[in-house]
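User: Sequence recovery, please. Input:
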């Protein structure tokens, strides 16, 4: 099994090297073949340059720099398209997702098509802000009801998926917006009857820099996206033109 880790970056200079080294350390212990695909949206803080300086001759790190385009979901898509592993792992580059959780994903993906990181399973959770925890809980409760999802966490952005299933999904439908790509991906996996298993993860506080998620703005974006999906489903169910 070969593994590709996709990391979208924007202004992650102060901690990206430490994160990459932690990921490499975990995967080296697994003795598996892997690559890390970093998609940088022309970070003004020089994120791409510090990666080149540290890993310029290392074939394990594939750095993709986007100019004139920005956005989490489209950066993830570019990383997926640039990856080559049998298993693709999506995670954030701000250290909110811990590399030490990766073995649980790799152990489970041998038996399931998609492994979903959940902050709401026993052993998972949040570091720090109570407001973020409650807001996320409410949004995920809404998504589960509105979209009839069986997964407990539909916005964590931390998951592993087999390429054999990933290549069947609709990238144009999934990868737009912000973190809402996560629940659209889960819905498309369900369309193909893909098997899904959840593992507990802890959402950790950002180590440095400014957080890019805005609870009110992004939360309402998720709600609007879910409502549109549900309305389209109902329209199709009733055969509306």
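Assistant: Recovered sequence (241 residues):
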């Amino acid at each position: 099994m070969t593994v590709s880790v996709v990391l979208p970056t924007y202004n992650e200079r102060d901690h990206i090297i430490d994160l990459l080294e932690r990921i490499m350390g975990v995967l080296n212990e697994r003795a598996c073949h892997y690559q890390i695909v970093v998609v940088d949206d022309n970070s003004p803080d020089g994120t791409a340059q510090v990666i080149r300086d540290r890993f310029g001759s290392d074939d394990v790190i594939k750095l993709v720099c986007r100019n004139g385009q920005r956005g989490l979901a489209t950066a993830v898509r570019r990383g997926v398209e640039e990856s080559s592993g049998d298993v693709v792992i999506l995670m954030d580059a701000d250290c909110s997702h811990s590399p030490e959780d990766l073995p649980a994903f790799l152990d489970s993906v041998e038996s399931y098509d998609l492994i979903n990181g959940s902050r709401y399973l026993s052993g998972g959770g949040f570091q720090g802000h109570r407001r973020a925890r409650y807001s996320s809980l409410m949004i995920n409760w809404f998504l589960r009801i509105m979209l009839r999802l069986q997964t407990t966490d539909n916005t964590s952005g931390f998951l592993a998926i087999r390429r054999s299933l990933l290549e069947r999904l609709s990238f144009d439908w999934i990868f737009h917006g912000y973190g809402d790509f996560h629940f659209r991906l889960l819905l498309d996996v369900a369309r193909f009857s893909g098997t899904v298993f959840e593992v507990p993860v802890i959402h950790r506080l950002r180590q440095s820099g400014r957080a890019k998620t805005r609870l009110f703005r992004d939360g309402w974006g998720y709600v609007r996206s879910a409502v549109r999906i549900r309305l389209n489903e109902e329209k199709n169910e009733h055969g509306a033109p």
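Strands lie at 2-9, 33-40, 61-65, 87-90, 114-118, 125-126, 159-162, 196-200, 202-203.
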